[in-house]
Fold:
Amino acid sequence: MKPVKIAMMGMTHGHTRKYYQTLLDNQKLDWVASCAQDVDAKKTYELYKTGVPCYLDPEEMYKKHPDIEAVVIASANDRHFEQVKWCAEKGIHILSMKIPTFDMKEYDEMIALCDKAGVVCQIELEMHYNSVVRRLKKLIADGAIGKIKSFQATNITLSPVWAFPWQGDPKASFGSVVPLKAGDPRFRGGALCDHPHIFDLIRHLTGSSFDYIYAEVAPNLRDGLKVEDMLMAVGKMKDGTSFLFDPSWSRLEEKLKVPGPGWERFPKRMEVNVTITGEKGMISCDCFGPNVYHNGAPNDRYTVQYTYFDEWIGLIDEFVACIREHKTPLINLKWHKETIQAMLGCYESIQSGKIAKVGGK
Amino acid sequence: MNMKKMNKGLDFLRGKYGAAKGEITVKDGHCFVGSTPLLPGRMERKIVELKKMTENGTLEGVSTLRFSSFAPKGADLEAMLAKELDLAAYLGASDVVRVMAAASGAAINVLAKLANDVNVSVEIGAGLPKGAEPYDRHEIIAKRGVACDQTVDTHTKHESIRCWGADGMEEFTDVDTELFGLSYDEIWNVRAAFALLQKRADAKVWKAAWAKATKAAKLAFAADKSKAAKTIAVKKGLDTNQSIKVAEVR
Structure:
């Protein structure tokens, strides 16, 4: 198979650095270029010494590398539409970060652009390539606990806003400046926008769609943050499955400009924990464990250090296969739309104080 | 271990990333590629992370290693001990130079010394019921920091998934998506073979390291019988405790 000539764009997303190893190791790829959004992003990129040239202008990158076949769009959410359009118009396949856009008009335009150009657009929901999630899917599919009745999930992390400031900027993160609710000084665009995974996972595991959702924001943990950092949601799927989600930034962090050791103040940076009650039993699942544990440098605090990170390998494997074998990715724009609508439902519910029917139905 | 499945997994990795030809074989319960013994323990990701911590400044001034390993009845105590002593030399970055041990039934307790003066304790037991999952623990105690591959304040092994179904509780810990379906031991033997075939691991180093570890384990049993510590002469030359190249995401 001819290696796919791939590039990265933006370089401001929190997941950017997680691709480097895979893009360099995977023999089905030829990582030819990167294009940073600004000088700061370029400087950070250069710290990782990938050896891949980095530009500041996409047109210049494309002029120098006209054979680019695919791009990982690793930028702020409000840049995604223009970048998807740029790629689609050139017939370039797209690996999009987890939130293509919260603007449903833009979202539908993205679908149309990609369909017209005949390009693959895969959404980065890396949990699907995690071995624990794979086991979880198998257990549910094999009927280990029968039909799902209740699904509780956390997708709780530290906040990346100090390293990736756009994630605390309502416009850059949510796409527009929308107050959370009357009398609340905060805006949409915080923790919720960082955590779509559990909204997606429940759809896969139940095979059902969202019916309604109710969400509440709590007081923020971080002073001065313009967006929400603590919230929870409860609701039902159309098959009657009850759910409870915590997609908060509930783990405090050091204000590092570049993520690295010592970032976390709570011992574990990120948890995706799921408990599922079925008609015949129950499952408890920690998608990021077991690990190793230490209280050494730099901060001499008890720290959970992850031991595996297969997600990016499987994600990229699927992307390459979709390009070369003309397949549709598991998480494509059309599938992902309902996940985004459910997240928007959370914001609508926070604003109204009532349940939100997902997708406005 | 299912050699057919393991070699299929190895072929998959070789095909995907590129590596020399080779096949995993098993002799006396230990896996080899050609005449090179595999050191799967060094490939376990938890061990990889612990090794990194000893080298990247997370831990400073290692003083003591406290290891334990438990397996079902009938397991080969000497092989279990050899694996742990190899990991002690690897994580302590120094060869074992002295061993003392006290054995009783299906258990042996070992106190070892590394050439760099680090103390090592190893508790080995083969008393778990047949079919039970083995359990081990590796703790590194340093002047700055303690690191461990088991959680603090529990003696229960962490499992990724617990499923209470019609047949009672089942536990699952899957650690490698590319080799999903292989057992824990199978996965690390495949990864070890792959590292060897990719030349990330050096066959000479692994042969020498395993020879040292098996010799130290044998001497531990002799020490128990003689009630006297056994000394091992350190040979100058090949450093058998160097880390190998691994993926990094932090």
Chain A touches chain B through 49 residues (CB under 8 Å). The radius of gyration of chain A is 20 Å. Chain A has a mean pLDDT of 95. The first strand of chain A starts at residue 4 and ends at 10.
